[in-house]
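Worked example

This section walks through a single chain of length 449. The input is the sequence exactly as stored; nothing has been trimmed or padded.
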Amino acid sequence: MVLGGDEATGALRVRQTGQSTQVRRAALASAIGTTIEWYDFFLYNTAAALIFPHLFFPASSSYAGAMQSFATYAVGFAARPVGAAIFGYWGDRIGRKTTLIITLLLMGIASGLVGVLPGANTIGVAAPLLLVLLRLIQGIAIGGEWSGSVLLAMEWGDQRKRGLLGSFAQIGVPVGLVLGTGGMTLLSAVLSNDAFTSWGWRVPFLASLILVGVGLMIRLRILETPMFAAVVAQRRTSRSPVLDAIRHHWREILLSAGLRFSEQMPFYLYTSYVLVYVVAEHHYSKTFVLNAVLIAAVLELVTIPLFSHLSDQFGRKRVYLIGAVLTGVLAFPYFAILKNGGYVLIFVAIVVSMIPHAMQYGPQAALIGESFPTHLRYGGAGLGYQLASVFAGGPAPLLATWLLHVTGTPYSISAYIVFASVVTVVCCVLISDRSRADITDNAVYARKA
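Given that input, the structure is written out below as tokens.
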């Protein structure tokens, strides 16, 4: 099944007569769609740190409960490459728009069901099993969402501004974090601890169903991207796009995954694991840590598009490498402050830690997307991006909990972050920088595909 001729022709005509309108719609659809997806995902992250250990694993010790909760958290990451493969196939066969509508529905329904899921005290072992199943669905949806959202904006807009346009999908992460974490922060502040842990945490999950309705209305109004429409019109779609991407672009897939180590792994420590560590180490309130994470996310609303714009001016790799090196340099000072600092220093450390992340996460969308030809871009970029979820993002809170338990020092986690930075620097040096290349010309990739 491929994009219909009428829709492909319509998309090409719009490129000539009303592209500016479609560019705005595509950017908005990209940002809002990923906002909803990440809102749901971050709700789970926060609940995994604060609620799920005693709700779904009440018989476990504090350490075991945290490990089990973060294990269900990691399951969602393991499912992401599966989602990238499934939806990468359809995204490169039937188009970006239709595929993105499906991923949005999957994510919203799974999150709504988490909001009504009974605890282990009510339905026993079925509770954590259902939680894992819903987390798998979330991971599959996220796996198919990212590359489509990035391409929606990148393939519609001014090619001299691919870094900035690709960052609209990335902005969905801090906005989703603000909404998800902000909702949890507000509820934990205004409700009693008993009310919050019994039913208050469920409200943001159920609210995601409303957001999905808004996202669907926006995505239904956009047309297919002109780059993919041209591929369809010229009958150049691949019969097996994911397999072809792996066969001909395995190097780019692996380098794209490695690029993300110093961006993704520390990010989930800074936004999820930090909730557990600071509360346990200093007995500060959950609201204090959530507020710091919230301010950090607001800061990224500015820094992500800023560094993405700079990558259009000075090159993706230059900006990205600075961010990766800073991540490694700040790893030991960060945990030194979390361990020995007071309220102000800890708050500042949590906020500032997101600046090196933005230096990488902003330009990352274009840097990865530019590495693949149009007819294989959805699947290739998605696989590269999501593979890092298995080895970097998903295991991060789990390994951090284990490292602290085994070594007794948070500096073992700092060493873990430095390792991730080294991996990223090597991969960033090896990957090609196509910041100023014309990615509409598939001849660039003809020898490889």
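What to look for: The radius of gyration is 21 Å.
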